[in-house]
Write a structure and sequence with these properties.
Number of helices: 6
Distance between the termini: 63 Å
CATH class: Alpha Beta
Number of strands: 7
Number of domains: 1
Structural class: alpha/beta
Strand content: 15-25%
Strand order of the largest sheet: 5-4-3-6-7
């Protein structure tokens, strides 16, 4: 009797482990809102050393977005197949160049892109076609996409990262940025980086 109970207990534990391992990714019903913390998003460390250096990362195989060495991280959720993302790509590139060309901001604001439903191959096609210089990451299984509310594209989230490692969403909105200078001014105001805030 004891042997049967032990076998059944072990079988129950194995079944529970199998069920737990096959649970779907927890999805949000809405995008992160201003003032909230960003969900715990993990990405593969870029293979390109220029991108690793840009993000201030050097160790490990993966990283959390909140570990990027910056006061503000701008996240673009895009898709290679999204015509609005394609049309807005030059504006996002202008924003990147504007930040990188400003010695007072280039170490404080970083941009990354996450390709919803896109493979590494598709992300690379987008990168090359639109000459994107900031890091782009594939999300071919829609894991990140589900964690941020299955947003339409392009969707922009700006995250303020404080010196103590805490962070919060300061911008979360669907649609292109259109005018890079106005978008940058808005983020400076929301993050208070122009007042010495952030890292």
């Amino acid at each position: 009797m004891r042997i049967i109970v032990k076998i059944n207990l072990h079988l129950l534990i194995i079944i529970c482990c199998i069920v737990f391992m096959h649970q779907p990714v927890m999805a949000r019903s809405n995008p992160p809102e201003k003032g909230e913390m960003l969900p715990d998003l993990t990405l593969a460390l870029p293979a390109n050393p220029v991108h690793r250096d840009y993000l201030g990362l050097s160790k490990g195989d993966t990283f959390k977005i909140s570990e990027i060495k910056a006061g503000v991280v701008i996240i673009e959720i895009f898709s290679m197949y999204c015509p609005y993302c394609q049309r807005d790509a030059p504006n996002v590139n202008s924003l990147f160049n504007m930040i990188e060309g400003n010695s007072g901001l280039k170490d404080k604001i970083k941009i990354i892109g996450i390709g919803a439903g896109n493979s590494s191959f598709e992300v690379d096609i987008f990168r090359k076609k639109y000459n994107v210089l900031f890091p782009l990451f594939p999300d071919n299984e829609f894991i990140i996409h589900k964690r941020v509310g299955e947003v339409r594209t392009p969707y922009f989230i700006a995250l303020k990262i404080n010196r103590d490692g805490s962070h919060k969403v300061i911008y979360s909105k669907l649609g292109g940025i259109e005018k890079a200078d106005q978008f940058l001014e808005l983020l400076l105001k929301l993050s208070e980086l122009d007042k010495g805030g952030g890292r």
